[in-house]
Amino acid sequence: MFSKACEYGIRAATYIALQSLEGKRTSLKDIAKETDSPVAFTAKILQQLSKNKIVESVKGASGGFEIQKRNVQTIKLSQIVYAIDGDKVYHGCGLGLKECNGAKPCPVHDKFVGIRDGLKNMLETTTLLEMTTGLEVGLTYLKR
Amino acid sequence: MFSKACEYGIRAATYIALQSLEGKRTSLKDIAKETDSPVAFTAKILQQLSKNKIVESVKGASGGFEIQKRNVQTIKLSQIVYAIDGDKVYHGCGLGLKECNGAKPCPVHDKFVGIRDGLKNMLETTTLLEMTTGLEVGLTYLKR
DNA sequence: TTTAAATAGGACAAAAATATCCGAAATAAA
DNA sequence: TTTATTTCGGATATTTTTGTCCTATTTAAA
Q1: Residue A114, pLDDT score
Q2: Which of A61, A97, B22, B134 is the most buried (most CB within 10 A)?
Q3: pTM for the full predicted model
Q4: Cα–Cα distance list, A96 to A74, A105, A132, B36 (Å)
Q5: How far apart are CA B119 and CA B1, in angstroms?
C-alpha cells in the first residue's frame, strides 16, 4: 500500500507525537529503537518530515524531534503520506494506465475509485492524536 | 497498490480473455502491443500465469495464449494477483509491522482491515468475463 | 573554551523490482 | 525436411527503493 519509507515515517511521527504529548523531545536513536526501524534510513525520512513542517527538529546536544501539541491534534496521516509518497495513492490507476478517468476508464476504474476513496477518507480524517491514544494504554503497538 | 508485474498481468489476462471469447488465440507480441506493456517483461509474467493455470500457452508457429471460455467466466482477479504478488495484499500490516492482528494491532489496524476487505472482496468477485464486457463496446480501455 | 551529543546532508552500497537479450525447444506450414 | 514462428527459460542489465557511512554543523553543558 505505502512505501517502506512511508511506513517508517508514520511510525516515527506517531512516536514523536506520543512523546511530545508528554512534553518530551525525542532523539533519532530512540525513535528508531521504539519503532523498530533502521536508524540512518529513518534519519532521511525525518529530514523530509522536518522540511514539510510535520515535525520540528532541534540540532545539538539535547536536541531531537518534537511536534507542538496543538499540531498533534491537527496533523493528518494524509499529510505524512503526501510528504513521503506524494499523491500517487490518490491519482494512480489500479491497472497502471497513464490516463484513467471516468471518461476513459480501465475495466476496474469505478471499483477502484470506491476503495481509494475509502483509503483517502481514512487518511484525511485520522490525526496523529488519534494514532497515539491506544499506544498510551497498551492497546496498540508501533513495533513487533 | 499492485506491483507493475501484477498490473501488466491483469491487463494481459484481460486481453487474452477478450480474444478467447472471440475464439482467437493471441501472441505475446499482440498482447504487449494492445496492453502497452514491455514485450519481454510481459513474457515472463505470462509464463507465471501459465504455470498457475490462469492462461494456456501453445508453443510453435500459430501458437500463443488463450483461456478456455468457461474459465473466462470463473477466473477471478484475486487469482491473478495471488499468482504474481502473493498474499501480501491480504496479510500485510498497513504500517509494515511483522505481526499485526486484532490481539496486538498497530494504531490503524481496524481501519485498514476495512479497506483491505473491500479490496479483497472486489478482487474475489470480479471475473475476467466482467473485465472484458466494457472493452468490447469501447466503454473501457486497456491502454492509454 | 572545549567537549560531547545531536541533526543535516552528500556520497556511497545493497537489494529488489523492472526490463532486456539470446539460445533452446516446439510446432505449423512451405 | 526445411523454414518461419512462437513460447520457454536462463543470464544479464537497468532502475528504483532501501539502507549505510561519514563529515559538517549546531548546541548545551562541563
Answers
A1: 96
A2: A97
A3: 0.95
A4: 33, 11, 35, 10
A5: 10
Q: How many residues does chain A have?
A: 144
Nearest CA in chain A to B142: A106
Q: Which nucleotides of D are covered by protein (CB under 7 A)?
A: 4-10, 17-22, 25-29
Q: What are the grid coordinates assigned to A90, written together?
A: 490518490
A111 with B97: Cβ contact below 8 A: no
Q: What share of chain B is helix, strand, coil (3-state, %, to 5)?
A: 60, 5, 35
Section B84-113 average pLDDT: 95
pLDDT tens digits, A71-83: 999 999 999 999 9
Q: Which nucleotide is nearest to B46 (CA to C1')?
A: D7
Judge whether residue A89 has pLDDT over 90.
no
Instruction: Please say if the pLDDT value at position A36 is more than 90.
Output: yes
Is the minimum distance from the CB of B139 to strand D below 7 Å?
Answer: no
DSSP 3-state assignment of B141?
Answer: coil
CA A102 – CA A97 distance, rounded (Å): 13
Query: A88 and B128 in contact (C-beta within 8 Å)?
Result: no
Nearest nt (C1') from B48 Cα: D8
Please give the mean pLDDT across all residues of chain A.
97
Question: Nearest 5°: phi and psi at B37?
Answer: -125, 155
Q: Looking at this predicted complex, what is its ipTM? A: 0.94
| Mean pLDDT of all residues in A37-64 | 98
Cβ density class A48-72: b for 16+ within 10 Å, e for less: ebeeeebbbbeeeeeebbbbeeebb
